[in-house]
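Comment thread on ticket #2218

A.B. wrote:
> Attaching the input chain for the structure job we discussed in standup.
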Amino acid sequence: MKKLRKFLPKFLINFYHWCWSLIFALFNKFPSKKIIVVGITGTKGKSTVSYLTYFLLKEIGFKVALSSSDFTYIDSQEIEKKERLTMPGRGFLQTFLKQAVDNGCEIAIIECTSEGLWQNRHAFIDFDIAVFLNLHPEHIEHHGSYEAYRQAKGKLFKALEKSKTKKQLRGFPIKKTIIANLDDFESDYFLSFKAEQKIAFSLEATNFDKNFLLRPEKYKLKKRGIEFELNERIFKSELLGITNLYNILASLSILKALGISLNLAIEPLKKFKGLPGRMEIIEANGFKVIIDYAHTPESIEQLYKTIHEFFKPKNLLCLISSAGGIRDKWKRPKIGELGAKYCSYVVISDEDPFDEEPENILKAIEMGAKNYLKEYGIEKPVEIIPDRKEAIFKLIELAQKGDIVVTIGKGNEKSIVYKDKIVPWNEKEVILEALSYHQKTKKRYSKISTKTSS
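C.D. wrote:
> Ran it. Output below, let me know if you need it in another format.
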């Protein structure tokens, strides 16, 4: 199928996945009618909101299932996904929901991507809550246009419109609910779909029914976490930055839609440590290493801003990258530009070249970095090191007291995919290996060169 899809019309690929969804829905007796289903979509934050919601509900005392980017959870059982797909096809989601029902789960959370929705992998799922987080240009070349990308995300909300089954959570009737981030430009589009109830979260908006708006009366973004006041109660989290404040509000909105008192989330929220590979901080000998999954220009820039604001590093040493697969070529020079703008030293390395030549991707990123430096008359080191392990070792060698090393694009992913091979990968393990090696050898550069490599 993978080889054939290049030659097949898109409607045939979508019909193929629709058929698989129907077959497995019939085989599993339409399991989504027997469990509350929450679908979460957006360009960024899906995994964090999905897992945070799962965590909070578990801590409060519910049996919950989760299908997200890296793992599937059936109550407390963790199952690693071998596929590099957030929404696998061939009936995966119907089977997941059947397992959740058979294990007594009350709520299922599904992380929904534009690709999975566009290909109808969600077909025949009876959704109860649809969540919109944000929308930024992503997968545009694949979908054909930004409008097509937005419409693909909208299929989740169209599915909610079609869902008719009435469900209860421990006797509380669950209304078909749309949840949306009012501070995103596209919120009106997603709120335009029909639903029995609409809930919004925001840091700025006031033009929404206050009984269905989660807007902190005040908030503080600190070096050690987030603190905000909501409904005259104080909420605290160890997560960092404004992006995570939005993620928390999205999760609390889901609790509200489920009829759960937000006060019950106050203590569990304090315990949540975040997802591996999402703003994950490793303390080294006098400096820090941060692993993040950021892969869009918006999320990368927000990450760099957050690091500079809270940690004020002496030098920010960055590994930057971009995926291949003929996807989003437009963003590669932009990622290079952001690296040149915010970082003291830039190393460009492989992320997932897929079926493209890695050199083409790396050169496009380098071009963006060098054009920015030339335009503003700045000298900074920009280096291409295709081997990601070698790139990480180089940055660790360079790091001095007060510096921060940050890697983006991989997060907690378990492989690097090339057109002729799949390389097993664990970003954190490689970083720890590099730290251990350089701690033993004491190998360090005396200073960061100010020359830009050619």
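A.B. wrote:
> Thanks. Noting for the ticket: The longest helix spans residues 358-376.
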